[in-house]
Amino acid sequence: MKLTSFVALFGAALALPSAPLSSRACTNPTVRKEWRNATVTDRLAYLSAAVCITKSPSRLGIHPNATLQDDFSFVHALLSDSLTSIYIHTVPAFLPWHRYFLRVYEDALHACGYAGPALYWDFVHDSPSPSRSPVWDPTTGFGGNGAGTESNGGFAPRVVDGPFKDWRPLYWNAGVNPHGLARNWIPKGSEGEPEMAGGKYSAEIMRGVFEETTYAGFRAKLEDPHNHVHGGVGGGLQRGEGGPGDLGANTASPNDPIFFLLHGEVDRLWWLWQQQGEGRTGMYDGVDQNGRAVELDDVLPMMGLAENGVVRDYMDVNSPGLCYTYE
């Protein structure tokens, strides 16, 4: 079943009861930590809740076999596809939309029993040797590269260790295509040094990103290293030998739960940039995919996964609906 066959259900998805975010005054913000700085207890609790999301009932009800994790992938796919005429990449909404998306996921983790803050993966720190990052630990991390020898339906080898080795995403690239969670790390020397295209999101690259003084310039430059992390881990859509991995495609990347740590780092980098100039917390400019000048009152759609948001409510991490900071 292709995503186009879901368009008739699009309106129904919007009308579904949504899961509201908690509203509270931000008097005691939570502190989001880098994965390696969280306690082992918190890491294991986070992973247990993330597994719970892969088994929780769908909120959207689009497909009878869908889980809540599939919902996250489905919504991300809809908003990355021309079917909806809404884009969440290569446009100003990239940063506030994903900030809100992360918050929706964090609330889902809490509903699954996790009491801690959202965590992030500092891929810039790990860029000299990404494969050595503790995020890939099979016990206290997300498992390693795809390594299964059996067929995975044309995808990259499935992940065979860690808490998600039995996870079978339902959606792929605008259609229903169940498969084992697939990763296809780009090897050393093929697109950058070292493996996983680490040279494309190094500290040196990031210094150039932070030289930008306008929101539009910063967002555009930040998306490029972010793209290389996606491709470096997932392998992209056209990896050739071994097939593509989930994180490498915009319309499938939330299939891999590491997506939310990757975007936690993207959000942290935006937060850091916001601290480095007067008025940057409210800075939002540029044009959308139709050439229209963006505004702070623009809607951030969640397609029934949660209530729709508004950009201005997701510019400042100290706003009542967010209320967090980074260590």
From TrEMBL:
Residues 231-246 have a biased composition (Gly residues). Pfam families: Tyrosinase. GO terms for molecular function: metal ion binding; oxidoreductase activity. It comes from Schizothecium vesticola. Keywords: Copper, Metal-binding, Signal. The lineage of its organism: Eukaryota, Fungi, Dikarya, Ascomycota, Pezizomycotina. Residues 227-246 are annotated as: Disordered. Residues 89-106, 256-267 form the Tyrosinase copper-binding domain. Residues 1-15 form the signal peptide. The keyword Ligase does not apply. This is Tyrosinase copper-binding domain-containing protein. It comes from the Eukaryota. InterPro entries: Di-copper_centre_dom_sf, Tyrosinase/Hemocyanin, Tyrosinase_Cu-bd. The keyword DNA repair does not apply.
